[in-house]
Amino acid sequence: MKEVPVGNNIDSAWTGPERVVLITSVDRLGKSNIITIGWVMRTNMDPPVLAIGLSKGSYSCANISRTGEFVMGIPGLDMAAAAIYCGTHSGAAVDKFKKAGLTAVAAKVVRPPLIEECLCNLECKVIATQEVHAHRVFFGEVVAHWSSEKQQRSLLLVGDESGYETVHAEAGFRLGAVANS
Amino acid sequence: MKEVPVGNNIDSAWTGPERVVLITSVDRLGKSNIITIGWVMRTNMDPPVLAIGLSKGSYSCANISRTGEFVMGIPGLDMAAAAIYCGTHSGAAVDKFKKAGLTAVAAKVVRPPLIEECLCNLECKVIATQEVHAHRVFFGEVVAHWSSEKQQRSLLLVGDESGYETVHAEAGFRLGAVANS
After folding, report:
1. Whether the bond into A112 is cis, omega within 30 of 0
2. Which of B105, B145, B162 sits opposite A180 (nearest CB)?
């Protein structure tokens, strides 16, 4: 084993695939936003709690910090272009639901909307937050769970090696799924 | 979309693949332990910070809570059986390095050892913790980074659908990789 410098890039260690999810939130006027993220993990089974990591400078981070609520939507393969769009634009300037062609549906418990096109939507209430340098991690307890009839493979951030099917590559991101062999 | 009950199982939403990592720690006597986990995410780029989620009842959780240090080893495909072993036994009772046939190598900055067989080892110092019901999340800043010459695909928790190569299935876990197509 050889030592390598510690830097802002541990990608050599952190090879794909990585899960991709869409997070909805609302601002102080009630306007909905969507952000695409890859930093997400489960942190408890019952009740289910999910952790998500967002840049502190993002509009979604400000929204969730203020309201304590978000919805996690799990996108299928057909949402790759929408996911890239929502991950590379700021909701401060645009209506991402409209621009990405996604449909907001009222949630049951929280104010941020579900995304109709997603395979699954998890309504979450923030039970804790943690500052990590330029990022904030929100721990969200799942308070309602919605499932779609859609049958699709989940969207992943993939590499360019064999075994993956790339469906959309843009802005340095390659989205796709594990290839059906 | 239809609502489904919120429960201890969001697996229908949280389909594979999931990253698998090995975490080393030391107890109060300096004895090393290894635990295999799937709850891990990046939470900052520079400096690199990783979050890991452990059951509060685990020996490793007690070790890391006491010392504030851990090493994250990223296993390759040939370590599937060792990963299952380390994830299904308690270090309170056995020497998991010995039982799993893994080699401890002294780290540079922290007391927990590197795992020689891993593709990569990241020495981490805990900068924050968060209680989440039955689990504790540790935020570890990477303070040293070691890379192996070994060329292998990373080990993943995989499903039984096509596109994956299963190399070891035991105790309800299926470990493998994205298949080379």
Report:
1. no
2. B162
